[in-house]
Write a structure and sequence with these properties.
mainly beta; six-stranded mixed sheet; four-stranded antiparallel sheet; 0% helix; globular
């Protein structure tokens, strides 16, 4: 059974930083592309970032380019998202998901809330 457990969310002021983690189990993590997807209240999901199985290729939504960095440690079965210079619009539930950007067939974790507020 695929399990994805996100952590690291919280309340942060604009301009601050957070690092999200996703612990993966139940599948061969190192063989799968992985993504971070966020969803704000009343909005559809947005693929924030993706990383290929080996970590050598990444995708970022225009809204987070230059501020967010996706990475993975295949030895630890863990996905990360370093979020810097956070903005009010970054407020959302952030989900770890299997697959590349837009992959609706992927598995998702339970999500972690990120709130950017002064």
């Amino acid at each position: 059974e695929v399990q994805l457990v996100e952590s690291g969310g919280g309340l942060v002021q604009p301009g601050g930083s957070l690092r999200l983690s996703c612990a993966a189990s139940g599948f061969t993590f190192g063989s799968h592309d992985m993504s971070w997807v966020r969803q704000a209240p009343g909005m559809g999901p947005i693929w924030v970032s993706s990383i290929n199985s080996g970590g050598g290729s990444t995708y970022y939504a225009d809204s987070v380019k230059g501020r967010f960095t996706i990475s993975r440690d295949n030895a630890k079965n863990t996905l990360y998202l370093q979020m810097n210079r956070l903005k009010l619009d970054d407020t959302a539930v952030y989900y770890c998901a299997t697959g590349w950007v837009g992959d609706l067939e992927g598995s998702w974790g339970q999500g972690t809330q990120v709130t950017v507020s002064s």
